[in-house]
Amino acid sequence: MTTHQTPSVRLENASLSFGERTLWSRLDLEIEQGEYFAVLGPNGSGKSTLLKAMLGLIGLSGGSLRILDRPARRGNPEIGYVPQQRPFPSEAPLRARDLVGLGVDGHRWGPGLFSATRRRRVDELLERVGASEYASVPVGLLSGGEQQRLRVAQALASRPRILLCDEALLSLDLNHQQAVSRLIEEYRRESGATVVFVTHEINPIIDDVDRVLYLANGRFRAGSVEDVMTTRALSALYGARVEVVKVNGRYVVVGAGPGEGAEDCHAHDVEGGA
Ligand SMILES: Nc1ncnc2c1ncn2[C@@H]1O[C@H](COP(=O)(O)OP(=O)(O)OP(=O)(O)O)[C@@H](O)[C@H]1O
């Protein structure tokens, strides 16, 4: 990672509020090109909203947000997005390959649309995510894990410089979690893309992550996993005693009550402060 490169994402004195409620404020953050950056925190702490701001779908309440040195904007082809998983209805009139094809088409509708090149690209993406054998199956009939692989393929189709993932591993079993996280990491390594990964659980991506941002109770903390995943840092964020224990390379957070985002005892990560 060079120090002269334009950051992928730069937030300056950023704040986001809905009415009286401030999700986060005074947020200064630079995410470097090629960095694997995780965003952690309990339900409702503003993780997805941060991604939506990067996608240009939600405006900041204050401060600035630049993506590759330009103001965040909708439909930025430099960004790939794996949205929070919602199952497709079983009657959805799309086959697996159609879904991936939509990603290949991106914003460029035109004569290449039905070309052999497009077909090859769709096949290549399907193969890459291990979805070739169900390429012609309607998406609504596929399992959650299979659908999620297709979403990743769709997000990678435009060869984005920044990949935003919102709980991309949620409700996947361990095998599928590993397969999907491996795909994302492989893409980052070969393309030099930046990954911003929103998650409740750091452990499935712990080997890949460079830095984390932990949001909780309007507070936040950014830093290395070792800096953020500590009893002291998380207790400060939650405003209550929280124990962070590392067991066999995995983080277990004990003591943050329900509604504070952490379970009584669970594997997890976080931190921050407004
Ligand atoms: N457009 C909106 N108008 C008003 N409130 C909103 C809007 N979008 C999000 N919120 C609220 O902002 C808070 C943060 O939402 P967000 O989806 O970013 O949380 P999150 O950290 O991603 O949570 P989860 O882990 O549950 O997905 C929530 O309380 C949500 O209800």
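^ adenosine-5'-triphosphate complex. The chain has a mean pLDDT of 86. The chain is about 25% helix and 25% strand.
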